[in-house]
User: What shape does this take?
Amino acid sequence: MCITCNNTECRGTLLHMAECTSSKTIKKSCYSKTLQFPLGSQKDIIYNIFGCMKSEDCRPFNETATLSNGQYAEIALQCCNKVMCNRYVKKVADKNDRPLNGMQCPGCLSINAKESCSSETMVRCHGEENHCVSYTGQLKTPRTSSSTVSFKGCATKYLCDLLTGASKDGTDILAPQNATEAECSCAEFPAKT
Assistant: This one.
């Protein structure tokens, strides 16, 4: 049995239980996907999906992006194989719990953007963030489409691939739409003076 839910608030009456039956040839796992994406002074996009999938397709990940002004984005998938083991929403990691890796990228964030935001600051990259992302367009979740956003910052390769369209893995929870700019490059270590 797995918890199923597809909503911004997966709690209480929104949670349902579903059989997640494995057969001799197909093993199944419970999963939970979590998305958190900043929208400046507006409330962050937070979305959760709980369900059941083939075990071979359930490959856990935790991908992040660090934007300007301490803004932080995360998309994660967790898999488990016990009854209702996916009932807890993964808590988004605190920025202070993600170690700096020494790399940096230009950073900015603009909501309701008409054009690409200009990067006046450098953002320090955390953990596995080894790419610089530059994106202008809408972001679609299962229930909403954002207004046009423009951001630059550090990102993991997976999140870069998702935003640039190089990967379709994860587009069920976050998909780029009407992008006028979607680029990734390697993050760099700052020049020593």
